[in-house]
Each structure stands twice: as C-alpha cells, then as structure tokens.
Amino acid sequence: MKRYGMSIDLDKCNGCGACMVACAVENNIPAAPENANDRKGITWIRVYKIDNGEAWPERRTAFVPVLCQQCGHDTPCAHVCPQQAVDVDAKTGIVGQMTERCLGCRYCMAACPYHARYFNWWDPKWPAGMEKTLNPGAAPRMRGVVEKCNFCQGRLHAAQERAAATGKSEIDPADYVPACVEACPTGAIRFGDVNDAAKQPDSFRLLEKLGTEPKIYYRSKREWVRKVASAPGRNKAVANG
Amino acid sequence: MDKELIARGVKRCSTGRFLLWILPWVGLLAFGLFAAALCLVKGLNQTNMDNRFAFGLWIFLDLTVIALGAGAFFTGFLLYILKVKELKAVINSAVVIGLVCYSGAVTVLAVDVGQPLRAWFTFWYPNVHSMLTEVTFCISCYLTVLAIEYVPIVLKNRRLRDVPHLMVFEHELHKLVYVLAGVGTFLSFFHQGSLGGLYGVLRGRPFAFREGLFIWPSTFFLFILSAAAVGPSFLICITWAVEKISRKRLVRQEVYRVLARISGLLLAVYTAAKSIDTLVWINRTSPGAGFLAEQYYSWRPFGTWILLVEIIGCGLVPALVLLSPRLRQSTRWMVAAAAVACCGVALNRFVLTVQTLALPTLPFDEFLSYVPSWQEVGTFLAVVAYGVLVYSISFRYFRLFPQERELRVESAAAEAEAEFELVER
C-alpha cells in the first residue's frame, strides 16, 4: 500500500473555496452557530490569501489552501496526545483522529504549527431537514473533541471495501480521492503517492525546517510566492505589507 | 460558639467575625461555581478560547498556582529529608497551601477539557511519549499524597483528639510522614518538570521548543528549579499576610530568614540557568528551526522588555535582595522580594503559555490576541475563594503554626513584665 501525499499548485488556485465546501459536506461539518467567529469555526481546509507586499499596480496575490499536513516524522500532535487519540497509519501515512477517544484537552492544537486542528466548541447542529444530507461514511463529532483533515478516510475505507469485495488486495488509485481534490475546478490539488508529489518541480513544504516531514507539497513557479509561503513565521515587515 | 474546636493556647476571633470574613469568599465561590457550571453544561463556547488560542487563562494560572504550591513539597523535602528543623514551624501551612493549589488546579483542568468524563482514558490508554500523561499521573498521585498529609493536621483538632481511634490513626499516620515526604518530593519534582516539558517539547512552536537532556527539554529542569525557588517565597508571603490579617505572630523571624535564604539561593541558580538557556535558544535552537529570535519580539506588546523583566527584574533583583543578610533583616524588603519572585514565576508561565500561542508560525498567519471571558475569570476566582476558605478554616480550627502558642506566651510574658516595670516605676 502506498503512502499518500498531496501536491497543491498555488499558481492554479484561484481561492474559490470549493475545496472547503466539498470538505465540509463530505465530512459532516456542521454550520457554525451565529455567535461563532472566524477563529471558532471548523474548516478542515482553509484558504489563506497572500500578497507580494507591493503597492498597486505591482501588487500580486496568491491563495494557499492549508489543511492537516499529515506530518511524517515525530508527528507533533500524535506525540503529545495523552491518550493516544491521534493515530498515525504506518501503511498509508495518514494521521487520523479518534474523536471517540479524544479528551478535548487541545494539547494537540497547541502542538500543531499549521493550526490545522479544530475543536468542537458547540454541539453539532444542522438546520431541520439538512441532517438527511449527512454522509453516512463519516461519523459526526460531538462537542468537546478535536477534529482535523484525514484525507477523507471514509472514502479510503469505502474503496478498500470495494476492492475486498472484488477480491483485490490493493485499491484502484482512481477509486480513492479526497473530496477537495475532486471539487477543485482548476485541478490545483493533486493526490496520490507522496513520492510523486515530492518530485513535482518548484515544490516546497510549509515550515520545512521544523523537520516534521509534511506530506503536503506546494508548487509555484513564482519566486515571491515560494518565498512568502515557505518562510518560517511571519515577519513584522511582511505583516505590515 | 465553636470555642471547643479551637486549639488550646491560641486565640481566634469570634464566630460572628469569622463568618463575616468568610461571607464574601462564599459569595465569590458561588459566583465562580455558576461560571464553571455554564462551561460544563453549555460547553467551552462560553470561553474566549478558540482554535488558535487553544489554551488560555486557565492553563496559565494553573501552571502558576502549581509552581507557587511547590512550597509544600519543597518544605517537606527540606524538613524531613534534609533536616532543616526551623521549617517545622511552617510545614502544616505549606501542606494546606499545596493542597489548595493542587486541588484547585485539578478542578479547573476538569472544566478546561472538552470531555471531562473521559479523563480516566489517560490512565487506560496512556501515551508514554506525552508530557501530559506524565503530568496527569504525577499530579493525581501527588494530590493523593497531599490529601493524606492533610489528614493528620485535621485529626490534631482538639475535639477530634477526644476520639481514641482517631488519635491512634493519626499517630500511625504520622509515622508515614517521612515516606510521604519522600514520595511527594519525587512526584512533585517530576510533575513540576513535566509541566515545563509540556511546552518545551513542542517542536512545532519554536518560541517554546527547547533542547535538553535525553527526553527532557531544558524547561523541564527550569520549571523544577523555579518552583523550588518560589515555593518558599510564596510561603513567606502567605505567612506574612496571615500574620497581618490575624494580627498575631505566628512564626519566629528566624524561620522567615531561613525561607528567604533558601529562596534567594535557588532563585539565583534559576536566574543563571534561565539566562544560559535563553542564550542557547536565541543562538542555536530557534535559528535551527528556521526562526530568528528577533521575530518573536517584533510583536507588541511582547518586546524584549518582557525577557528582561522576567530574568533581571523578577529573577536577579529579588535573588540578590533575599541573599543579602542586611536586606533580609528588613521584613519589608524580604516580603517585597518574595512577592516579586512569585510575580516572576507567573510572568514566566504567562510567556510560555499565552505568548507562545499568540505568535504566528505560518508566514501568512496573524499575530493574535485573546481576552478571557467572564466565565473563565469567574471559574478561576472560584478557586481563589476556595483556597481562602480552606486556608481560613484550617487556620481557625487546626494548628497550622506550632510556634504560635509559644510566641503568644512569650509576648504575654513580655507584656506582663513591661506592665510590672511600669507599676514599679
């Protein structure tokens, strides 16, 4: 079985947010309550906007979708969880979250340098009738637990079941793609073997020097995008634009 | 009304006055319990924590309170293991302070987690690599030790001593005191350290991440040192405050001086260790992770001033005051230095918890701020009120300061002598 990875072409991403919507629908993420703010909502994939810091007409913009980076080495969240609620699949490399075991201590959120973990601050609620649209392949999470992107593990399990039903030991690669990959209208997100993702030209990873070995590779031919997106920490000068 | 419960040879205020004293604290406790109940029933959406500020006021104050409560284990260690006999005068008070600090912190932690009913999972599915597992195990065991250490203090109550079985039980329990002190010291050293390790191991947070020895980051050792240093300082502050409020002499000046000397010495060692650690972090650890230390201090209000205040203002200065025999003689200087040392440890815990989370790690992320909600403040105030109530009740009915009786006799004798001289003249 291969270890999965993702390649996101930032030159193709137009920031439409279709990946975020598809992710929320696929993984039964409830709508945030009215009194929720941007920092309390749940978005397993979040699109950030970056710019080159120049004034118009030299100003250039790009979008960076950030999801769980599925860290491969000393996975920060798995390392700190006190009750082994974070599960790193040695075969696929997918970092999963066992929400039914999660204490909700949020130590993993403090440990994640990518801010890709989300806490259920409220009970999950769907508007009347909407609960009929829930995906039976992904269990909704309760209040007080942490959740995150798991490369649509429900889809992987379904593909594995289909393969097993036909007597195959390996799944057909075309049979398993996460919802965000499927929904991206520009084909910016590609999914497959992590080694293939690493081979793409102009690739880089976020906060590479931390040594967490993320499995999400970003690509851009534009030097300023690579420079801004791969820099460690936000510099005050950049922040002030 | 409750005269029979008050220890022989000591004087306490009237029941009415005592009730008047505890009334506002009971009110504060009720308010805080209401705030905590809201968080438990409605969820942590009642707080101002969020996905970026996953930890807030509670964790910061928990770490502070546990460091201040370290006086319990460290005084026990000095008295029973290193045989510093002067500290017998404050050991009971230290145990009560420790019990209050630890039980209060554990209670707040129970509100702080999203699924408190799953707390036992940590014992059932422990992740041996997690510092939080170490903290949970040690803190639970040490709280049990503190509760056992508190029992003989309660059983020494005048009325309870009338019950023969309880007296025998207390006597037998007292024999265990050396074992308990040893176990408590071991557990407490470990969990103070693992609390420091909580943040020190976060390689994804280069502001907090530290290198160290074997599996322990340097913050593991710095937390042990700082807690041992400020534990006696906090004991000085509390004893002095109780003396002022109750208008009684509770311990001899010599006890204060011993505590001050120990605190000053450890604070000086801690300040030196912290300075070395900061230099290593600035020049090696942080650049190794790709982050220049100056980046962290470009965000206001967290400038380099905070580092200087922590190391020099709240570390070196009080250490020098407490180490100086001349300044130590002055109660004002000594108590002020001890209070500043306590503030220093609070600042250190604030920096490690709040500043770490406020700083952005991703290049396109924002520097964030956080203001706790009234429910968060209220819940913590409940712990403060609970602490004051437990301490007040313990002070009234149990013998927290064994020297109090002799000091009272001495001052009565001195008064009588002065009166006699006056009459003679």
Textual characterization of the structure:
- The complex is a heterodimer of chains A (241) and B (425).
- Chain A is α+β, with helices and mostly antiparallel strands and 241 residues long.
- Chain A is 23% helix and 17% strand.
- Chain A has eight helices and ten strands.
- The relative contact order of chain A is 0.24.
- A two-stranded antiparallel sheet of chain B has the order 1-2.
- In chain B, helix 3 crosses helix 8.
- Chain B has helices at residues 15-42, 57-68, 71-81, 91-112, 121-124, 131-155, 164-175, 177-200, 218-246, 253-288, 293-296, 305-323, 325-329, 331-358, 374-397, 403-424; strands at residues 212-213, 216-217.
- Chain B has one domain (3-401): Up-down Bundle (Formate dehydrogenase/DMSO reductase fold).
- Classes of the chains: A alpha+beta (241), B mainly alpha (425).
- Chains A and B meet through strand 2, helix 2, helix 3, strand 6 and helix 7 of A and helix 5 and helix 6 of B.
List the keywords.
heterodimer; A: 241 residues; alpha+beta; Alpha-Beta Plaits; four-stranded mixed sheet; two-stranded antiparallel sheet; 23% helix; 17% strand; disordered C terminus; B: 425 residues; mainly alpha; Formate dehydrogenase/DMSO reductase fold; two-stranded antiparallel ribbon; 16 helices; globular
